[in-house]
Amino acid sequence: VAFPDINPLTPTHVLVVPKKHYENITDNVPAETLAAIAHAVKVVTEQTGIDKTGFRVIANTGEAAGQTVMHLHMHVLGGKPLGERII
Known about the structure:
Blueprint: E1 2-4, E2 12-16, H1 31-48, H2 50-53, E3 55-58, E4 74-78
Antiparallel strand pairs: 1-2, 2-4, 3-4
């Protein structure tokens, strides 16, 4: 499932969420679920046009990393320059 974030940080800020509950990306998520999430990210970026301009995908894991909803989800961010590289 993919839908716009209610508090967007960038012009394009979409959440990609599996229907089945996993607390985070390290919660024994099956490979096929991770593949489905990756495919959904691809579809979101193509539909929003950020596949051409660049985007960032983030999965916060744990409170110290900023995870506030304890259900696996990916943030797809783009539509503007995202600033300094973290890694």
